[in-house]
Amino acid sequence: MSVLERLFRRATFPIRMLPDCIIIGAQKSGTTSLYRYIIQHPILLGSNPKEVHYFDDSYHKKLGWYRSHFPIRSSKMCIEATPKYMFDKDSFRNLKSFLPDVKLIATLREPVERAYSHYKHVCRGMRGVTETRSFPEAVRADLDVLRKERILGNGSREDTYYSYIRRGIYAPQLSRFLEAYGDRLLVLRSGDLFKSPVSTMKDVFHHLGCEPVKIEANVYNQGDQEEEEIPCREELEEVFEPYNRQLYELLGVSEWWNY
């Protein structure tokens, strides 16, 4: 976004929209694909950029700053997608206070695959941070944090970049949003989005109150979905097993990942 466009957006914030729907997570679980599928609908517009990071990193800024990221008010609807919202402790409180009636979507990925994808993402460089440890070393460090009974993120560097295990412990993250938002929160499996995007998006459009439309189905960030042997996978599946059971109970399902 150019400086002139940024200034124009901030000058026109009073006539700009607030989001009708927010994709809150999870990181490395298909949020980019979901966002791009949604904005293929003719009455659904996206924020600029996709990840606004208002309720986690920028809540100290004024409302005009947040509105400046959205389109000028019209009969259409708009969305944003910041995957950190689901994991971050303060984001829930801020979001509930500011947008208590907004619709939410969370897409969840099998947690071991999510952890390894997250690790590779940081290894490639994430906002200037690069992971240098092996995957087993990196997850052991996050398990040490988990043993201190800290799951939700607090905005620290450690939580922002290196929360490989804790971000995949979904039940404590989702339970807060489900209690506050109820059926305004739609929970998806990322595998369904990747394998059956057309039928999955019918559910999404129904959740948003829109007539389904035909989408151009592509998996964005497709290289991240390739099958790859994950180091210490069996050990991590054991780590996640009790947390997965918590998720199943929360969602009222008997299984979720098809192990």
Automatic annotation (TrEMBL):
Entries under InterPro entries matching the protein: NST/OST, P-loop_NTPase, Sulfotransferase_dom
High-level lineage: Bacteria, Pseudomonadati, Rhodothermota, Rhodothermia, Rhodothermales
UniProt-recorded Gene Ontology molecular function terms: sulfotransferase activity
Domain (Sulfotransferase) ranges: 19-211
Keyword rRNA-binding carried by entry: no
UniProt entry tagged with the keyword Flavoprotein: no
Key words of the record: Glycoprotein, Transferase
Protein name: Sulfotransferase domain-containing protein
Biological source species: Salinibacter ruber
